[in-house]
Automatic annotation (TrEMBL):
Amino-acid positions noted as binding heme c 1 in the UniProt annotation, renumbered to this chain: 72, 86, 89-90
Post-translational modification summary for this protein: Binds 2 heme C groups per subunit.
Protein name: Periplasmic nitrate reductase, electron transfer subunit
Function field: Electron transfer subunit of the periplasmic nitrate reductase complex NapAB. Receives electrons from the membrane-anchored tetraheme c-type NapC protein and transfers these to NapA subunit, thus allowing electron flow between membrane and periplasm. Essential for periplasmic nitrate reduction with nitrate as the terminal electron acceptor.
Gene: napB
Pfam families, sorted: NapB (PF03892)
Length: 151
């Protein structure tokens, strides 16, 4: 039984290697990432390599119903099951005192459209939709245009 599984695994691996481009099979240093780095380079620790803009003003939206971008650094804003740093400023009770925009009324509706007295659990984790503005350039060339109504 083990021998059969071993032969099957070797057969699958050989089949994958045959279908691989020569650069991948022979020399990984010739393969480049979308940012034109060699995939054989030493990997760097994960982190924020682009400066987050602390612009004070949000960049314009590019499509209808795009979640607003965060105009300040947010990498040190913890959002856990028990605590959401974003709500320190953007909760309705705090927004005026902190001179911050209030979170949308849509964040107080559940999946069935019922109004809740607090932020819906499906809207509680801000960073799943709202991202910090960055001056990052596109990874690949594209012809994306903003929606005409937003120009």
């Amino acid at each position: 039984m083990k021998r059969a599984l071993y032969k099957t695994a070797l057969g699958l691996l050989a089949g994958l290697m045959i279908g691989m481009p020569p650069a991948l099979a022979d020399d990984p240093s010739t393969v480049q990432s979308l940012r034109q780095n060699s995939v054989a380079d030493v990997e760097h620790e994960a982190g924020h390599y682009r400066q987050e803009l602390d612009a004070g003003a949000t960049l314009p939206r590019d499509f209808v119903q795009q979640p607003p971008l965060v105009p300040h650094a947010s990498s040190n804003y913890p959002v856990t099951l028990k605590f959401n740093k974003c709500l320190d400023c953007h909760a309705w009770a705090r927004a005026q005192a902190t001179n911050s925009p209030k979170i949308s009324i849509t964040h107080f509706r559940d999946a069935q459209g019922r109004e809740l007295s607090s932020v819906s659990p499906s809207r509680y984790f801000c960073q799943q939709c709202h991202v910090t503005q960055s001056d990052a350039k596109p990874l690949v060339e594209n012809t994306f245009q903003r929606v005409k109504g937003l120009n």
